[in-house]
Design brief:
The complex is a heterodimer of chains A (299) and B (344). Chain A is mainly α. Chain A has helices spanning 5-30, 38-56, 59-83, 88-109, 133-140, 143-161, 163-173, 175-180, 185-212, 223-233, 238-256, 258-261, 265-282. Chain B has a single domain, classed as ABC transporter involved in vitamin B12 uptake, BtuC (Orthogonal Bundle). In chain B, 77% of the residues lie in helices and 1% in strands. Chain B has helices spanning 2-32, 37-49, 52-77, 85-102, 107-136, 140-160, 189-207, 209-219, 221-226, 231-258, 269-280, 283-307, 313-338, and strands at residues 184-185, 187-188. Chain B is globular. Chain B starts with a helix and ends in a 6-residue tail after the last helix. The chains are: A mainly alpha (299), B mainly alpha (344). At the A-B interface, helix 4, helix 10 and helix 13 of A face helix 5, helix 6, helix 11 and helix 13 of B.
């Protein structure tokens, strides 16, 4: 049996960092910013998450450090791609390469202390729930996955059922309209990028502190781009983005189980990317936030 | 013309200043960790131009970066962001290795065949992005990034599956037979081929109707269409050529440097190529930018070996000048994007 609870949990564990990062990307894209620098921001969060966790001895402090590093990196992105503004695609790519350099360097400098693993997040199934299969499953879902799901619910509500969310989406849909309605487009995008950066950093920390428990150079290895893919897969809707992330998690979890399944693990890893391209092919166009990728020079 | 000269001068000026700023930043970081900044930087320079061997290495390292830069630059002129050079390179190398290790032909036939097949592989990989962009309006940035991953996973699946070297524990393909490797004349012949491709592309972009059409398309697609240009066909040519160039970059690397594909065989040449294209902005400029990026890479390795300063700093030296350059240039960058004629 391949689709047992254990499999679902492993898929969920793999998907958790992706889910958090993808939510950040979704918010940035809804505000009209193509957040290609997400890979680098995630890497910063991953590094500072592990540094915080090791130096304070508390994994949750590590998560907070990752979040803070992400917010800073998001604000740097905002300075470069909203305020100057430069091209979002090329700036994102350049920032990713810069982030590899910065994080590897900081890691080398602080590496003496980092041979040790980060502390684990304590999480056990309470005794009273052990008898019930469903309760056991729910309680064995890692806390970070719950955090991610709650964040999605909050983001969905704020984006689609509140005034600030409407403002944010309007900036992504038409800067001209938003501007003539009296919105300060650069500020909205700056706030969106700070939130997006924070979530990406948190996702990076979830990768290192919550899962791998150590850091190595370029540990994200394209996961930021996968999160981007999940957002496109989800057509910029939180619930479908969440589903897209789970799909990537399942693909990777399948790849880990190829000894049972047979076949080549890399072919399983390929599936989610191919599916994303297919979704882009068959989904109706015009659903995307219209201003994504266009710099705003109206100031 | 005077305006052009000034533009060029200011670009080079900005670039040199950015590079100096990045070097100062790195020197500061080296001092911060208690190293000797002067020794580190001089070890770096020595690693690039210190010996004949160092220069040869730099040139060889710059080749795939320059070709990938061209693969970004040509569609970029037409307003198409091709982030997929890394994937084309991977697939092109795989195709070249497949052809040379599977079939037997006289070498003068085999090497061109391998190059052509790799170019076709690159075109095959970029075709979905093109079709989706033209027919469905899908953002090419996303699709090319996705297809990168598809290509990388496909290469890994091949070298751990059907194309794995028999009896090898590692994920690696068979070695390309010695007959089919590109001959070496100071540097391998692939370098000359790459330079020829880039110079030809530079001439075509600057002096032919096709180059002009690309500029028109990049400047204002709807105006180009309204004037009766077949925008789809022009874009398709540019994009397919880019895929082919990416594939050839991979096969040159496979046929002359690594001789096989394996896990983690490729450095991020595709992404460095984008940086090179943004720095260089025209095919000849791309050559110099690629040489610079490769020099930083080789010099960084020497710096790490000689002084123990982490070579990771090289990524900063490679990207910070580009960041600064883009930031400084951005005020007139988009004006030039919309009036490509003015950038000449």
């Amino acid at each position: 049996m391949i689709f047992d609870p254990e499999f679902l949990l492993s898929a969920l564990r793999i998907a958790t960092p992706l889910m958090i990062v993808a939510l950040g990307v979704l918010i940035a894209e809804r505000a009209g910013v193509l957040f290609l620098g997400v890979e680098g921001v995630m890497l910063c969060g991953a590094l500072f998450g592990i540094l915080g966790a090791v130096y304070t001895g508390d994994p949750w402090m590590g998560m907070m450090c990752g979040l803070a590093a992400g917010v800073v990196a998001g604000l740097v992105s905002a300075a470069l791609i909203v305020w100057i503004p430069t091209d979002q695609v090329v700036m994102g790519l350049a920032m990713n390469i810069a982030a590899i350099g910065v994080t590897s360097f900081i890691f080398r400098v602080t590496a003496d202390d980092l041979q040790q693993m980060s502390p684990t997040i304590d999480w056990t199934v309470p005794a009273w729930a052990a008898d019930n299969a469903v309760a056991t499953f729910l309680f064995s879902v890692p806390p970070l996955a719950w955090l991610a799901i709650i964040l999605y619910a909050v983001a969905w509500y704020v984006l689609f059922h509140s005034a600030p969310g409407l403002l944010l989406r309007s900036v992504g849909q038409s800067v001209k309209a938003a501007n003539s309605a009296g919105l300060n487009v650069p500020w909205v995008r700056t706030v969106a990028l700070a939130i997006a950066g924070g979530l990406s950093g948190l996702g990076g920390a979830a990768l290192t502190v919550g899962w791998v428990r150590s850091f190595s150079d370029d540990i994200t290895a394209g996961r930021g781009f996968i999160a981007l893919a999940a957002v496109y897969f989800g057509r910029w809707y939180p619930r479908w983005t969440l589903f897209g992330c789970l799909l990537f998690g399942i693909g990777e979890a399948l790849a880990l189980r190829t000894q049972v399944l047979g076949g080549n693990p890399h072919l399983y890893l390929m599936i989610p990317y191919v599916l994303t391209v297919c979704v882009l092919a068959f989904a109706e166009s015009g659903r995307a936030p219209r201003e994504v990728g266009k710099p705003y020079e109206g100031r | 013309m005077r305006f052009d000269g000034f533009q060029l001068f200011s670009d080079i000026g900005i670039f040199v200043l950015s590079l100096l700023a990045a070097m100062l930043l790195v020197a500061g970081l080296v001092e911060l960790i208690g190293g000797d900044a002067l020794a580190a930087l001089s070890a770096m320079v020595e690693g690039v131009v210190g010996s004949r061997q160092a220069i040869v290495e730099t040139v060889i390292e710059a080749t795939p970066t320059a070709l990938c830069g061209l693969a970004f630059l040509i569609p970029f002129k037409a307003g198409f962001f091709n982030i997929g050079a890394q994937g084309h390179l991977q697939l092109g190398a795989l195709a070249a290795v497949f052809v040379t290790t599977t079939f037997t032909l006289p070498a003068p036939l085999m090497i061109p065949l391998a190059l052509v097949v790799s170019a076709l592989a690159g075109m095959l990989l970029i075709a979905p992005s093109l079709v989706l962009k033209v027919k469905r309006g899908a953002n090419e940035v996303t699709t090319t990034v996705m297809l990168n991953f598809v290509a990388i996973e496909f290469v890994l699946a091949m070298v751990t599956g059907p194309m794995q070297q028999p009896d090898s524990f590692f994920a690696e393909s068979n070695l390309i037979p010695a007959d089919y490797r590109l001959p070496v004349m100071v540097v391998h012949v692939g370098v000359f081929l790459a330079v020829a491709i880039i110079v030809a592309a530079g001439w075509i972009l600057k002096h032919t109707v096709f180059g002009f059409r690309l500029d028109a398309l990049g400047g204002n697609p709807s105006a180009a269409g309204a004037l009766g240009m077949r925008t789809g066909a022009t874009l398709a040519k540019a994009v397919l050529v880019a895929g082919a160039i990416g594939g050839i970059a991979g096969s040159i690397q496979a046929l002359s440097v690594v001789f096989q594909v394996a896990e983690h065989w490729a450095k991020p040449w595709g992404f460095l190529g984008i940086l090179a294209a943004l720095m260089g902005r025209n095919p000849v400029g791309v050559i110099f930018a690629a040489l610079l990026l490769a020099g930083l890479e080789i010099g960084g390795r020497n710096m790490q070996a000689m002084t123990g300063v982490p070579a990771a700093l090289v990524f900063l030296l490679q990207s910070v000048p580009v960041l600064l350059l883009l930031a400084v240039r951005s005020t007139h960058f988009f004006k030039m994007m919309s009036l490509p004629g003015a950038s000449r």
